[in-house]
Amino acid sequence: MSKRTSISANQGIQGLMNKPKGGNHKNMTFELVMPSCNTNNMSVFLKELSKRYDEDLVVLACDGAAWHKSKNLEISGNIIMTHIPPYAPEMNPIEQIRQMGVRQ
Questions:
Q1: How would DSSP label each residue in 5-64?
Q2: Helix, strand, coil percent values for the chain (each to nearest 5)
Q3: Considering the entire predicted model, what is its pTM?
Q4: For the chain, which residues score pLDDT lower than 70?
Q5: Which residue in 22, 61, 92, 97 is deepest, having the highest Cβ count within 10 Å?
Q6: What are the backbone angles phi and psi of residue 102, rounded to the nearest 5°?
């Protein structure tokens, strides 16, 4: 594995890559537009993400959505999935965006 990278995904099954320190890297955005959020589509996303960043270790921080924790989810070898704790909106980027809308 060549570089440390991290990725976060939201309900639209898309990822935004943080640029690794001190180096050039491929396009840092990765997303797939899928018709729905489910285990099968999440598996497709992970497979394509793994192929795109095949030389990197990808750490994916997910919320508690059922398709993120399914026993049938196919996780590629260069992807590590971690889950944020339930009821921790300060750790979930989509909740931050939602709160901005509530305040306005």
A1: EEEEE-TTSEEEEPPPTTS--S-SEEE---SS-SHHHHHHHHHHHHHHTTTSEEEEEE-S
A2: 30, 25, 45
A3: 0.64
A4: 1-28, 92-94, 96, 98, 101-104
A5: 92
A6: -70, -40
CA-CA-CA-CA dihedral for 7, 80, 30, 50, to nearest 10: 160
Residue type, 12: G
Cβ distance 58 to 7 under 8 Å? yes
For residue 45, what are its two tokens?
Answer: 């996303």
**CA-to-CA dists, residue 82 to 4, 6, 62, 74, 104, angstroms:** 16, 11, 6, 14, 32
- Taking a C-beta distance cutoff of 8 angstroms, is the pair 42, 57 a contact? no
* Residue in the block written with tokens 């018709």: 35
Position 26 scores a pLDDT of 52
**pLDDT of amino acid 28:** 62
Q: What's the token pair of residue 52?
A: 């795109």
pLDDT at 15: 47
